[in-house]
Design a protein that fits this description.
single chain; 500 residues; alpha/beta; FAD/NAD(P)-binding domain; 3 domains; five-stranded parallel β-sheet; 18 strands
Length: 500
Amino acid sequence: MSERKTIEQMDAEAKENLNNIKELPQPLKMKDRLAIAPHAMPELEPSYRARSMEEVACGYTEAQAVAEAHRCLNCKKPFCVEDCPVHIDIPAFIAKIAEGDFKAAIAKIKETSLLPAICGRVCPQERQCQLNCTVGKINKDVEKSVGIGRLERFVADYEREHGEIVVPAIKPSTGKKVAVIGSGPAGLVVAADVRREGHDVTIFEAFHKLGGVMRYGIPEFRLPKSIVDREIQTLEAMGVHFETNYVVGRTRKLMDLLNKDGFDALFIGTGAGLPLFMGIKGESLVGVFAANEYLTRANLMKAYDKDHADTPMWPGKNVVVLGGGNVAMDSARMALRLGAEKVRIVYRRSMSELPARGEEIHHAQEEGVEFCVLQNPSEILGDENGRVRGMIVDKYELGAPDEKGRPRPVKLEGQSFEMECDTVLVAIGNGSNPLISQSTPELKVNKRGNIELEDQEVNKTFVERVYAGGDIVLGAATVILAMGEGRKAAKGINEYLAKN
């Protein structure tokens, strides 16, 4: 297979690099480390993977990982650690990889993060830990930063594939009980950190499967669900309890968990799953979907497995995705894998303003997704049967910066046109589900429905013993940012329980 040969060639190059490195005077000088070229991630061939649910990125080989680790300068002031939302000791774990001690490397990561196999795959490292990497700065190119995310993924996969997963130690039982609402990244981090302290933890999940956005939002070809399952199994081994099909606010009111069921503290990590629409004519036509519904059917309910799927799926052939974030990229790439013949992303700013990860944009382009930038629909058109047949699209140019400093899109009058399509996926963001806030009037929420915090250092809400974090507080964010929020909340919960 051609992709297998590519991996072998990359591995051979890395082994040659390692031989050259070993011949240099040890320890390596800065100039020697800077002379080591970055190691690209092996990937499946685009025309093959665009119709396959197999994971696109194949992961580093051992030789690639060790060679890449030698590029790290072990800076005295590690900006990478400062820019990591959970503050992993990045130079320390990379140093262990360079030594070939992969077990010690993963142990170092797990001091602060229990989801390395996930974060190594889906975190926007180019905007976080790799953004201010000294190696990238010297080369004036963030793509030449040390491949921190790829190295994190490598040691996490190595641990799993070699059956060496170590369950974190648990302190003696305190007799205290903590409820975690939602099994997404924020909730899983809270559960792990609180359980380590010896508290009893129960996670309540509305869906029938665990993992939150990692399960229903991120496609299999980007994050295999077997990896999510394995991370959750670690929590099970730690003694965390799970209640699925449990909708807090319906199955049980939030305050009843505290006041009637004996929980001593509670964390809300329900995410932001309420889809937003544009409010234009035609959004109620058959063939218009919220991206999160589309992805939930495909991911959680496995619509791509047509012979065994738990849900029907709209057979779109000419698909348009509205938006430019990671959800838009996931939706467009999933549409290809579900049989679409033509997929376009319509985005009202330029390519350089796309908020999605660079890697996801690159993969979408390779797989044949067409990008229609500086464009935005003003109306969705239907046929005589109420089904989508196209859109009226307006052209835009970039104007003065908006309040966030981004160039404001300005409509060009008289330059509208009709774009044919049979499916429209709206991926312009999500709001917070109002169920918990409506059934818990004690909580304070802002106009967007996000829970407001009394103490942002520990993510405490204005309700005693109730903490919150992740997208329900931040709005739609990233997995690692949600984890960072969870870490702060867990600290607050542990401090509170230690005193009471």
